[in-house]
Amino acid sequence: MIDPVRYKRILISLLKLLIIIELVSAFMVGVSGGGWDRFGIDMVIAGILYITWERITALIRERKELARRKVETAGQDLRIRDALFFSLLWSDQIMQEIPADRRRLVVSAFTLIAVGVVLAFLKVGTGLMPLVISGVIVLGGVNLLTWLVSLERVGKETLQTELRLAHSVQVSLMPKEQPVVKGFDVAGMSLPAQEVGGDLYDFSCLNNGREELCVSVVDVSGKGMEAAMSAVFTSGALASEIRQTDSPSAILTHLNRAVFKHSRRGQFVAFLLGTISVQEKKFHFANAGQTKPLLRRGGTLQWIDGRGVHFPLGMREDTAYEEFSLQLQPGDMLFLLTDGFTEAMNAGLESYGMERVEQSAGAVELDQLTAPEIIARLTDDVRQFAGDAPQHDDMTLVVIKAH
């Protein structure tokens, strides 16, 4: 069974072929001495058709997005005319967005409606029988479409329920308040996208006899409940590993083996784990595929590369991570962020990028702000850049400010 998109393409191709055949035939007639009148008329008609097609195509491009916005925002005030324009202008995209396992049923429904209309036009039979037969066939097609719409609505409601549960799980894993660390101002924030992912951050006090705070920034691949469950597993495994050792590199190395064994293939966890040493004023960290920390010191900004391999957790079972120590000075700011910041896009599909992160993090006025205020300033800057474009990935940021 051929879908409507292919019908349309076949019809357009046949029309082009017929025009070409007519032009060639008229040209051959002119060459053989039969006169060039037919060829000249055909060329004029072909030119008019070409110009008309180009104008219609340009007009459609201008009106397509407008028609879609009107339908999406109209709600109960949707007008039949707007629905008609939308369905005609977006016919190809509408068909392509239908799930593959439902597309054949949609085509069958449209086929039934078309057959019913044709039978009504041909009036096969006598009396009211043609109208009854065509009406039954059209009703069957409409009922089939209605059933498909109800299935999609149930599926959407199920997905929304799953996303709400995943969001609740995601929020429950993160701190309810900011930590108090002597000599430092530390704060974190995670802003879930519309499609909930697996971003999270956490603060843990290390029980090693020294004043140290463990900071983790995590980004689990995938969306929805699956990513949320992976985040739960990773968070629980981290809590267990912290009780065994206070070395970020050793913790990530052990976590990697656990994630590799318990996650399905192709699912990875980007993980940056660091400890703040109050007495030494140092930040010890290991990075497993997470965005590099950004250090602001005075008027300079530097992305800290760290050491060793940076594979995400779960990619290779035998990965051993290395540790990097960063001596912090009064006034230093450390930004730990996920790629939801750098890959945020505006309506023109332009990425926020690392350069804009640097510009926002390098603003002079940040010196006078607290860590939570700095996070709010950077987040607002990304939102202003994105405008009305939807947020497609979680945005997580931890700011460490040394006094």
Describe what this molecule looks like in 3D.
- This protein has 403 residues and is of the alpha+beta class.
- It has 3 domains: 1-97, no CATH class; 99-172; 176-402, Phosphatase 2c, domain 1, CATH 3.60.40.
- Helix content is 53%, strand content 16%.
- The protein has 11 helices and 10 strands.
- The strands form 2 sheets. Strands 1-10-9-6-7 form a 5-stranded antiparallel β-sheet. Strands 2-3-4-5-8 form a 5-stranded antiparallel β-sheet, covered by helices on one side.
- A hairpin with a 4-residue loop joins β4 (269-277) and β5.
- α6 (129-172) runs parallel beside α7 and α7 (224-242) crosses α8.
- The radius of gyration is 31 Å and the shape is elongated.
- The model has no long low-confidence stretch (mean pLDDT 82).
Q: Please state the structural category.
A: alpha+beta
Please give the number of β-strands: 10
Helicity range:
40-55%
Strand fraction: 15-25%
Assembly status: single chain
| Total number of helices | 11
- Tell me the major beta sheet: 5 strands, antiparallel
Distance between the termini: 70 Å
Mean pLDDT over all positions: 82
N-to-C SSE string, H for helix and E for strand = HHHHHHEEEHHEEEEEEHHHE
The fourth-level CATH homologous superfamily of the largest domain is PPM-type phosphatase domain
List keywords for this structure.
403 residues, 3 domains, Phosphatase 2c, domain 1, five-stranded antiparallel β-sheet, elongated, 53% helix, alpha+beta, single chain
Topology:
Blueprint: H1 4-31, H2 37-74, H3 80-89, H4 91-97, H5 100-122, H6 129-172, E1 184-191, E2 198-205, E3 212-220, H7 224-242, H8 248-262, E4 269-277, E5 282-288, E6 294-297, E7 300-303, E8 324-327, E9 333-337, H9 339-342, H10 353-361, H11 371-386, E10 395-402
Antiparallel strand pairs: 1-10, 2-3, 3-4, 4-5, 5-8, 6-7, 6-9, 9-10
